[in-house]
Each structure stands twice: as C-alpha cells, then as structure tokens.
Amino acid sequence: MREKLKKEKKKKRREYSLTPYPLSLIIYLLPLTFYLSCASSQLSVPVVIPADVAGLVHAGETNSPEEYAFLERMGIRWTLTTFNWNRIEREQNQWNFDFYDRFVDTANANGIKILGVLAYDVRWIHEGGSGPRYIPPDKTHYFLEYVRRTVEHFSGRVDAWSIWNEPNVTRFWAGTPEDFFELTRLSAIAIREVDPDVIILGGAFTRGVFGMPKSFIRGLFESGGMENVDAVAFHPYEMTPARTLQLFRRFRAIVAPYGFDDRIWITEVGYPTGGWYPTATTEKKFPAYVVQTFVKLAVEGTSPVFWYHLFDPENRVKGNSEDFFGLVRSRNDFTSKGAEAFRLCAVHLTGTVYYPDKPMRDNLPSSLMTYYFESPSVMVDGEPSGGGTLVLWRTSGSTRVMLQIPGTNHTVHDPVSGNTVAIQSGAVVKVGSMPVVVTWQGSADGMPVRLSRARR
What we know:
By secondary structure, this protein is of the alpha/beta class. 27% of the residues lie in helices and 22% in strands. It has two domains: 2-351, TIM Barrel; 360-453, Immunoglobulin-like, CATH 2.60.40. The chain has helices at 2-6, 25-29, 32-37, 65-74, 85-88, 98-109, 140-153, 177-194, 214-222, 241-255, 286-298, 339-348, and strands at 47-48, 54-57, 78-84, 113-119, 160-163, 199-206, 231-235, 264-266, 305-307, 353-354, 360-362, 368-380, 383-394, 399-404, 408-413, 420-422, 428-431, 436-441, 450-453. It has an eight-stranded parallel sheet. Strands 1-10-12-13-18-15-16 form a seven-stranded antiparallel sheet, with no helix packed on it. The N and C termini lie far apart (53 Å).
C-alpha cells in the first residue's frame, strides 16, 4: 500500500478552519501534561524526505500569476482545498463545477498537486432548509452522488481526495460516530468505482478539547470504514512544536495496530499569531515554530505536511485566531510572517535523506537540537554533486558552535527574513531558540560534519 502512495499515477491528475475551543484554557491544558510525560521514540535509521513533502492549505485559490510565482519560489508541491458540495450542487440536480475547474486547471498548469476535501452538507437535504453539518443516513445517497460526480469530473486532475474534515468536532459533524463510519466506507467505495488510481484519505481527525478522540479513531477502523482508504489524515494542532510532535506520536500509536503507522498525512498544522486560541504564539516566535514543526514531522516519516495556511485576511479581527494563521500577512503585499521559514524547509529539505546519527558532536549541550540532511550525490558533467543541510536550535539558552562542514558554497539562512550569509568551514555561529539553517554543495565523502563548542 505504501508503494501506491509513492508511485506515479497513471492519470495526471475550505472553508477550512481550526477547531474552536469553547471551554477554558485550563481545561484545554489538562491532557497536555500527559503528552509531555510520554517517552519519545528515538529514530535510529535514515529517513527519506520526499520531494513532494511540502503542502499548503488554501494555496492558489486566487488563480493569480503572482500567487503561483510565490508558491514556486516557496517550493510548494501540494495544495488543499475543499470542494464544497454546497457550491457544486447548491440546488438539487443543478451541478456547477466552474469555480473548481478554474482552480484545478491553474494548479495543474503550475505543476502543483491537489488534495481535495469532499464535504459538507447542503441546505436542501435538511427539513426546513437548514440544519447542522451532518448527512442523515436516509440522505446519504445524495452525498454519494455528489462524491461520484465530483471525483469523476476531476479524474486525472485531482491527485487525492479526503473524506470530510475533523468529524470528531461537532462544528463539522453533528451526527453519530457510527453514521460517519458508514459515510466514510460508502464514500471510499464510490471514489474507487469512478477513479481507481486516485489516493483516498480518511479521518482528518484533530485533537479534541479533552484530548485525543481515541474511541472515534479506533471505531472508524474497526467498523471497516477505512478498508478502501490509502492513508489517514491528522491535524496535530498544539501549543508548541514539541507538543505537536508528542501529539503526532500519540496518534501514530493509535493507528499503528491497523497498519497505518507509516500512512499518515498531516493535512493541517499551524499556529495563529493572534486571537484567543490556546495554540496562539507571537509573530516573533512564529518563524522558529514553522521550522521546528516542519523538521520534527518530516523526520518522523510523515508526508506530505500541509501548513494551515497561506494568507491572513486583509482586515484581521483582533480576537479571532482564524485571522492569524497565515504564513503571509496579506495577499496584497506578500509580507512574510513565516513564509521564509517554510520556504527554507520546502526548498532545502525535500528530496534529501535525514541521518539521525549525524553530525559528530563535541562537547555540546543536550539542549542543542541538530538535524542533518544529505542530498543524493549524482554525476553532473562528469563530477559528483550533492550537498547537505544542517538545522540547529536550542531548547533553552544559546551556544556558540563551530561548524566543520564539507563541500563549497557554505551558507547560513535566516528563517525570519530569508537573507543569506556566506561562511567558511570552521565558522562559528550562535545558536538559540531561532533555528540556524546551514547549507552547502558537494559530497560529504571523506569529511564528516563535526560540530563543537566554540571558545568565547
């Protein structure tokens, strides 16, 4: 099944929103004390970082050349959008795909893969023309017709489909878990019937106010709802990158008995830089959180990783965290909040191999985090090429580190501004909570990367 997710398919091809936390921050924090006490697994084998690991939610939706040029510079390979039933079949039996045709055609023309979310309800299935987000069992056939028509219409143009969004949250699914299990099972069958080669995702779970929805997750698998599904989607929203990693590992432990431990897609992750959500951080910390979160999830072997999301709205409401998730402050000026940090990861980590036993460390504190990535060495004009990327940060304090690195074109990248500084092997850098990203070109054969504490 893993081969299915990686192979080239024969065919070429949101109203999305973070779960609101209606209870107090104190209630939210209670389960987190357990997460931090969990023993973390230690990676001991190299991890391949796929070339298409980097994705964004809501990217490309303006269809503008300016936005797509920006996405190309950022190294984005996937975009996620919801193919809302209510937009496609607002009135019964009146189908309109024009809006999504423009979006899909533009993304395809720019070489960006598409993950489409199949959701939500339409008013005309509810008595009185309104109701909660829910598909009553006696109306499921209407939803399945929407699924079939949508998937068939975009067959060969959309690369993957996800069934629903955050069903463990009543804001998005007001029905019973059992009804959702059956909806997933039937939807997966319908997708397979019209597009056998497309990738199908199920779940799209997020952390609940009281912790992980373990019974809901297990019920989806044990009911047979995931029998025709290729991967499970997860949204590890947390307060810090360290907590995000712990939450991801807890989710992986839940789905591992069903054979999905290596088939997890992160289809949303992020931190607002304002508003009341407990996961909010500051703009000053945001670039560090972007790099640390991307690195931590990528080296766990999950792929793709979709950041939520690209743009803040033009007029942000101070107390609304949903207005502050963007990597970019405004689509009018493309001012980066965390876009440069994400770009460094998407450009320099994709297509590499992470080696957990490198680099060599001499007299360095355990609070210094080091992540070493190598690009495969290939022959170019008769000469071997390749390179490496080193990401460093400290969980507390700061340290002056001497870098002994191979190759040429040694460069330090700033996650905040994107600016670069050329250095020589043997240079000293100061490492604190803001990650230091170092790249070089050329093979590391014969010269190990060595880090040592620099004298003051």
